[in-house]
Amino acid sequence: MSTKTSNKSQEKIAEEVLLKAYRLMHTAKRMAEIYDENKTIASKYVHSTSRGHEAIQLATAMQLKPIDFASPYYRDESFLLGLGLEPYELMLQLMAKKDDPFSGGRTYYNHPSLKREGFPVIPHQSSATGMQAIPATGMAHGLKFKEAHGLGTDGEKPVVICSLGDGSVTEGEVSEAFQMAVLKELPIIYLIQDNDWGISATGKEMRAMDAYDFAAGFKGLKRIRANGTDFVDSYHKMEQAIAHVRNRKGPVLLHANCPLLGHHTSGVRKEWYRTDDDLELHTIGDPIPKFHQYLLDLHIDEAELLKLQDEAISIANEAYEQALQAEDPDPADVEKHEFVPTPVTEEKGVRKPEGAEKVVMVDAALHAVDDIMQEYPEALFYGQDVGGTLGGVFREAANLAKKYGDGRVFNTPIQEAYIVGSTAGMSAVGAKPIVEIQFADYIWPGMNQLVEELSKSCYLSNGQFPIQSLIRVPIGAYGGGGPYHSGSIESTLLTIRGIKVVYPSNAADMKGLMKAAFLDPNPVVFLEHKGLYWSKVPGTDEAKTWEPDADYIVPLGKARIAQEAEEEKIESGESMVIVTYGMGVYWAKEASKQYAGQVEIIDLRTLNPLDWETVKERVEAHGKALILTEEPLLNSFAESLEGRLNQHCFQKLDAPVTAYGALNLPAIGLNVLWEKAMLPNAEKVSAEIEKLLNY
Q: Which segments cross the bilayer (predicted)?
């Protein structure tokens, strides 16, 4: 480990800054000691400390301003102290107490969510290694977008700090972040803290080069090395980095070598895997005695330093005792903050205005986004091939880039993780992103960000950081799309708590739901069936509807009766209801033609939140129900809903609720005969209707 100090470390820093840093170093050191001395209590919940990293973290935090944004990682305890957070506040989080200011006891130590006057903004931070790089880069992307479109603040420009361990840079998603940072010249600093350890693996086991050398391939990413054991060198190097970014000269990677003086975490203790020689080598780099000597060389009185040290120890000790006595969370609050309320709670506007023309679904989506872009200057739209002259492989964004400019509608690299995860950062800075995954079959690289970052943010930040994110995903089979352009993914999405899933089946709902999804302050995945886009698939003519007016909006979580049964048939017990969505609506309509007046069809429109009240009420009214899906049936959403209805409606059923879907195969074969054999169709659904009606 390098402990060499640059000549720049001799440049003058205000004495009050030096003394504050010295006190906070001892505060962090004492906190780590307290946790070790009381490990039976402190280690009840896993935590890490910043021992050995104090210098670079304090040098960074003490130069940030309230206009800035930060994305620290789980070892950045000294960083938080440097921002001005108190040891007591951090210890409330350590012990998962009710008044933990970040999460109300929901998430780990050093996982801040901070929206406080006079402090930089820190959106929710997950534990997933390196995953903060994309949301942080999204923050920088959002800031640059707002500045370019007159939506930013006047005067000094904010910076984004993204803190990473060197080992995390081997993650592919970090490379996606670097790529976008240099491609768009974003105002972000990647602070790489390199202590040469992962958990039990050393740097030479994990990487061919350190982050500084790795980043050389990203042209336009300014690189700086700092001695992370030396506060003064760290301070000046970070000062240089911040000035570069604040002056909008492009992104910076600052690589700082640090010793690891504590445990990896309280659950993986250093004595389990580190040798005495390794521990001794790291002790040589301890920034505290080095900084102590530096201050003495400046002729600062040792008695003053000892006084600061004693003050730090006293504050930490008192904070621990106080935190021990703090109140635990109320278990009755466990369900709070999955979502924040949406402003859209009722249908508004005109679904079929006078003089309206019929429109296909893909054009309804285009017109909805166009309306949104006109009304909300903070809205932007990006994804693969949606910008430029193409406007999406389905022409779902045709001419939008030409109309609104490349700064608001633009292409991204082939980076599904960035497309999804960047929306978390965009939302944190007040931009309103609409993004697109080109095909549902290719959403999987973005699932990590969707699960770890977007879905958990509102809940784990105690409601402070909901993520406004509209993610459009073309889905479903449409005649020969084959195994990689025909898939259905809704059941996988519906296992993720904290996101909403929308699935319209016609043009009017496409437009109304799209606007509601955009205005929803929570993450929404918007599934758009490719086979319904142009109503070219036989039997889907009704997906083309009269175009609603510009004010039309449909609240999420409200099903629609797509076809009614005759009341006499219901009363005589000769009816049933089909609960479905997407293409299933048209299979059901076609299949039910030979059972006139006997089949009601519910179009769910939104899969989460589910309109359970309507579904339950209509299933009980008919006594017979079929849940219809395009997905393979086994372990699907449809099968889950089938079981739920059988459980809750049992006493009013005349037959078991049944579910019907595609065959349980891993993919749809390319030949259309394979597709036909695997998927439901009107003929197959008709047979299921007959079984239920004759039960």
A: none
**Is the preceding omega at residue 331 within 30 degrees of 0, hence cis?**
no
**Rounded distance between C-alpha atoms, residue 597 and residue 386, angstroms:** 44
- Per-residue pLDDT of 51-64, as tens digits, reads 999 999 999 999 99
Instruction: Tell me the C-alpha to C-alpha distance, in Å, between residue 673 and each of 109, 165, 482, 676, 679.
Output: 56, 51, 11, 5, 10
Mean pLDDT of the chain: 94
Residue 660 falls in which region: left (phi positive, over 0), alpha (psi -120 to 50) or beta? beta
Q: Spell out the residues 6+ positions from residue 133 whose beta carbon is closer than 8 angstroms to its own.
A: 71, 162, 164, 168, 171, 173, 174, 176, 177, 178, 190
Task: Compute the residue count for the chain.
Answer: 695
Residues of the chain with pLDDT under 70: 1-10
Report pLDDT digits (tens) over 102-140.
999 999 999 999 999 999 999 998 988 889 999 999 999
Residue whose entry in the numeric block shows the structure tokens 């911040």 = 242
Q: Strand 658-662's sheet: what is its strand order?
A: 560-563, 599-603, 576-580, 625-632, 658-662
Taking the model in full, what pTM does it have? 0.95
Separation between Cα atoms, residue 126 and residue 110, nearest integer Å: 10
Task: Give dist(CA 526, CA 501) in Å, integer.
Answer: 6
Spatial distance between the Cα atoms of 598 and 570, rounded to a whole number of angstroms: 7
Query: What's the CA gap between 186 and 239, in Å, rounded?
Result: 18
Please list, residue by residue across 467-499, b when 16 or more beta carbons sit within 10 angstroms of its beta carbon and e when fewer do. Answer: bbbbbbbbbbbbeebbeebbbbbbbbbbebebb
Pairing type for strands 409-411 and 379-383 reads: parallel
Give CA–CA dist 540/299, Å, rounded: 84
In 3D space, the residue among 462, 520, 457, 528 whose CA is nearest the CA of residue 490 turns out to be 528
Contact criterion met (CB below 8 Å) for 390 and 424: no
Pairing of strands 222-227, 625-632: unpaired
Instruction: Using the CB atoms, write b or e for 633-651: b if 16+ within 10 Å.
Output: beebbbbebbebbeeebee
For 664, the token pair is 């349980």
**Paired sense of beta strands 69-71 and 160-165, if any:** parallel
φ, ψ of residue 55 to 5 degrees: the values are -65, -55
d(CA 382, CA 433): 8
CA distances from 237 to 19, 73, 79, 257, 522 (A): 19, 20, 16, 13, 38
Q: Which residues of 324-337 are buried (b: 16+ CB within 10 A; e: fewer)?
A: eeeeebeeeeeeeb
How many other CB atoms are there within 10 angstroms of residue 415's CB atom?
22
The token pair at 498 is 């904290």
Of the candidates 607, 666, 583, 683, the one whose C-alpha atom is nearest the C-alpha of residue 632 is: 666
Spatial CB neighbours of 656, under 8 Å, sequence gap ≥ 6: 646
CA distance 73 to 78: 11
